[in-house]
UniProtKB/TrEMBL annotation:
Disulfide bonds join 31-46. It is found in: Secreted, Extracellular space, Apoplast. One of its GO terms (molecular function) is manganese ion binding. Belongs to the germin family. GO terms for cellular component: apoplast. The keyword Signal applies. This is Germin-like protein.
Length: 219
C-alpha cells in the first residue's frame, strides 16, 4: 500500500485539477474545427490538416458597424469558433460591440470566459456584480480605456453618451457562451412557473405574466 504521504498529494491534485479546466488544450500546431462533423466532443473535431486553408484562420467584417436599430440600441458581432474555425482549442475569441446613444448590452454573463474590453469610440458606463455579497463595481470608460469582467459574473455595458460608441472585447474561450439574465429568467422555454418567479421577485403573478410575455416575444 502506498504511504499516506504519497497518497495525500495525489488526492489533492485530483480534487483541485478540475478547477484549472477550460477549453480543450491543443496537442498539435492547430486543430481547425470541422463544423460539418456529426461527432459530438467537448469542443469540435479537428479538420484533416491536409485540407486546411488559410481562410480557416481568417475573418473579415469587424470594420463594419453592427445594426443598433433595435430595442436595446446595441449590436454584438462575435468572432468565435463557429465563424472562425481556426480558433478551435486556442481558448480565445473576439467581439465588436456597437452602441447607439443610450444603447445597452443588458446584464449577462459568460459561463466559460473572462472578458476584457477596450473602448474604441465614445463613452461607456460598465460594471459587474460579485457572487459573494452582490457588490457592484462600475466605471465610466472613455476612448482607449480598458476594463475586465471576471468569468461567470453578471455584467453590462451602457452608452450614456450622446454619440455612438464602439468597443472591442477579447474573451478567454473559443466559445464563451452568453446568458442574458432577464431573457433566461422570464423567457425560459418552457416557462419557469409564475409561482416560483412571483415568490423569488416578490411580485404579483399578473406582473410576472406580463414580464414573461415581453421576453417570450423577444426570444
Amino acid at each position: 500500500m502506498a504511504p499516506s504521504f504519497l497518497f495525500l498529494p495525489l488526492f489533492a491534485l485530483l480534487v483541485i485539477s478540475p478547477a484549472f479546466g477550460s477549453d480543450p488544450s491543443q496537442l498539435q500546431d492547430f486543430c481547425v474545427a470541422d463544423n460539418s462533423s456529426q461527432v459530438f466532443v467537448n469542443g469540435f473535431v479537428c479538420k484533416n490538416p491536409n485540407v486546411v486553408t488559410v481562410n480557416d484562420f481568417f475573418f473579415s467584417g469587424l470594420d463594419k458597424a453592427g445594426n443598433t436599430n433595435n430595442k436595446l440600441g446595441s449590436s454584438v458581432t462575435a468572432v468565435a469558433v463557429n465563424n472562425l474555425p481556426g480558433l478551435n482549442t486556442l481558448g480565445i475569441s473576439l467581439a465588436r460591440l456597437d452602441f447607439a446613444p443610450g444603447g445597452l448590452v443588458p446584464p449577462h454573463y459568460h459561463p466559460r470566459a473572462t472578458e476584457i474590453l477596450v473602448v474604441l469610440e465614445g463613452t461607456l458606463y460598465v460594471g459587474f456584480v460579485t457572487s459573494t455579497n452582490n457588490q457592484l463595481f462600475t466605471k465610466v470608460l472613455n476612448k482607449g480605456d480598458v476594463f475586465v469582467f471576471p468569468q461567470g459574473l453578471i455584467h453590462f455595458q451602457y452608452n450614456q453618451g450622446w454619440t455612438n460608441a464602439v468597443a472591442l472585447s477579447g474573451l478567454s474561450s473559443q466559445n464563451p457562451g452568453v446568458v442574458f439574465v432577464a431573457n433566461a429568467v422570464f423567457g425560459a422555454n418552457p416557462p419557469i412557473s409564475d409561482d416560483v418567479l412571483a415568490k423569488a421577485f416578490q411580485l404579483d403573478k399578473k406582473t410576472i405574466d406580463w414580464l414573461q410575455a415581453q421576453f417570450t416575444a423577444a426570444n
